[in-house]
Amino acid sequence: MELIADKKDRITWHLACHQSDVPEEGGACALIEGKQIAIFHFTRRGEWYATDNECPHRQQMALSRGMIGSQQGEPKVACPFHKKTFSLKDGSCLSGEEYKINTYPILVKDGLVYIGI
Amino acid sequence: MSVNTNKRIVVVGNGMVGYKFCEKLIAKAKSDQKFELTVFGEEPRAAYDRVHLSEYIAGKTADELQMAPLSWYAENDIRLYLSDPVVDIDRQRKEVRSHHGLIVPYDYLVLATGSGAFVPAIAGVEKEGVFVYRTIEDLDLIQSHARKARRGAVLGGGLLGLEAAKALLDLGLEEAHVVEFAPRLMPRQIDEAGSGILQRQLESLGLNIHLSKSTQQILGGDTIEGMQFADGTVLDVDMLVISAGIRPRDEVAKAAGLETHPRGGIVVDNFMQTSDPAIFAIGECALAHQMIYGLIAPGYEMADVVAARLTGEEKEFKPYDMSTKLKLIGVDVASFGDPFVEEPACRTITYENKAKGIYKRINVTPDGKELLGGVLVGDAEQYNMLLQTCKNKTVLPPDPEDLILGSRGGEEAGAGVMSLPDDALICSCEALTKGMICHEITENNHTTIDSLKKATKACTGCGGCAPLVKDLIQGTMKQQGLYIRNIICEHFDYTRQELLDMVKMNGYRTFSEVVEGLGKDDGCETCKPLVASILASLWNENVLEKGRATIQDSNDRYLANIQKGGTYSVVPRIPGGEITPDKLIVIGEVAKKYGLYTKITGGQRIDLFGAHVSDLPKIWEELIAAGFESGHAYGKALRTVKSCVGSTWCRFGVQDSVSFAIEVEERYKGLRAPHKLKSAVSGCIRECAEAQSKDFGIIATEKGWNLYVCGNGGSKPQHAQLLATDVDKETCIRYIDRFLMFYIKTADPLTRTATWLNKMEGGMSYLKAVVVDDVLGIGEELEQEMQTLVNNFKCEWKEVVDNPELRKRFNHFVNAPEEKDPTVQFDDMRDQKRAKEWA
Fold this sequence. Notes:
The structure holds two protein chains of two kinds. Chain A is mainly β.
């Protein structure tokens, strides 16, 4: 598992957790610099993603507890509250509304997960 | 009309109709037609849904109400000037001048200036605390004043007035009044008897209704303190919303010398053309066929007529049907055709049920052959059918009362939507006929509501046509001999029933196995919990093991119910509702220790709210130590078996209902199904446990037990039906085993037993044949499958508490397990806490 992010140069990497702290095919929330970041391990695709933990619909800190999946191949997460779904790639809302979440670069090295902010 | 290229069109007004005109013109423009569209709006924001304005108070944002985002105007090259009304039309030079001094020339001018609130000349209307109800700005003012107000009134008991009254209720005023001049509510739509029923319903919701009240004066100093009426009475209020009618905004048209009506409105012909052929008027500012059409559907139709003209089509605005159906403060109200026609010009049939708050009236021709019109209050489910029957002059059944009462015995009244002619109007907002919709279904293969919505815009306006459109899809497909398969989602091309059979055959135990063997891609929030439910129903292994935690719905994943703010609620199982004092004390102590809000549930249990995710295992540990188990309140699973106290104490009881309820609950606890399951046992015919409202309910008789199945509470209550009579306990359990397994194996996803039965061909007699008579010869197999599930039961909470690996997942922060989510906040209420309201 190597770098997925493209903006390598201008970001600081923060150690978030061990790889095993994040459940396979699921998410967990890490506290980084006072920010709640949702980390997802999309095991069957061999991919890692990081986004805001807050769902913009009702400002609930819950996306890390959401279910991940794909829509026409696009990886996504569904908020457990009202099932708004967001692309894990660019944070856009896939259930047809104007919401957007932030996504963050993520790096997994030697069993450790780093988030770039 | 000749069609040139590059026509300059100026639209005055950016309300719903003005917006719709732009949308329709762009849609209709042919490839060689180019329009330069300029739109002036008086309000600071782009067109929004004024029809649902009260939802703004109820929590919708201005953005959510918007018809289209600003980017839409830019994408379509529309120049949009907001906060800049047109103040002058120079018809000679064909140009308009805006408030900010902008001068824009036009080839065609479309006036869509709408209407303002009609404010009657009552002394004191200028006082502070008196508002009108038209725009989001009005609502902002109302909202900010309401913070310091206790008693509010609405002047006007018509459609708009009652909408405004809903806003007052939503604002949480202590008292909300509606004052109407006429002797009844909604005088234009419903008759006196209908108004009476509506009034009772609204009063039960907390509104005070005052009829036949003529307001003489607004009392108070600078700020309103009360209203004085002509009959000498006074009503103390500290705010008033005037919603007594509308006044067409025709002042610019009038100043420009266009013909207007003395009582307001820009006079137009059947093509919406004003007295100046280059100027059109549409919506509530236009007077067509001698009237102002104050509804959205005719406004859209007018927009369509002008858009058609400008793109070279011929279309005429015909006198528009003012039939309407709406939900006022949760009460259905509808009127159609001629609601008020009286005998001898017709025969009137009415049905009134004061207890249920329902009133229905239909007017039929004296020969009983055609429907002329009618009124529905409290239950308007038949509105669409009645409207179509009325408009299409469909010949009525021999007993026309069947139309509102439903057929009592014999065949269904009418033959449903498929019997309507092709030109029957299904969606009045978008003017879609049955023929047009069926064409989209058969020719263009739009066989789902969603794709039909995209293709035709049906169901996107008021949404009232959705049930008819659904029936049309079903009916049309059936006519073509197509079998409608309920496919799960893009990842599984199977129905739930097919998938269950195949998972069983292959012995799959994990989602990976299922998706690799039978599906494609990665799964999603629809198929994952469905597979999770199937796996649990087949094998009853712990839902959180073998990678199954992340395919569970969030509640199942944390074995608790997520609530506002992200905390969870916990419900320990209390079989049959029987609990010892010691156990009650434990619940109290746990709730105190972890700061939980406690409430008795409808299923004779106790719900503990406000638990942080990291506290859940600790809470369960203490509950388990005291002998509790999970109540599965979070699962699509058996919830409770409610019971009355039965023959051990009750002087009427004929059997020990509590013992049987406990036995039933212990047997089926943790059983996962397509949807939640509820049950109850009553000790005698008085039925205090309400068993007939449950998925399966048992009622004691002198000789044994009666078993009822497929009842439902909730939004569509349905009584359970009798499956077996006077059976002993063992037989009763065997029938329940078979019934539940048959349901689990054949129901569509998220379908309760009542809906499952309603869709079942052959209905109750078929179900009885399968469960009681075992015509399929699967009785024994079903019983064995159930026994396997019963034998596999383990308490999920206990397994988490005892398993450090599972327990580790119950933290908010993976890198700070001791820390709780700092965004979780509570408010105080009646000596306990409550979740903070959504932001």
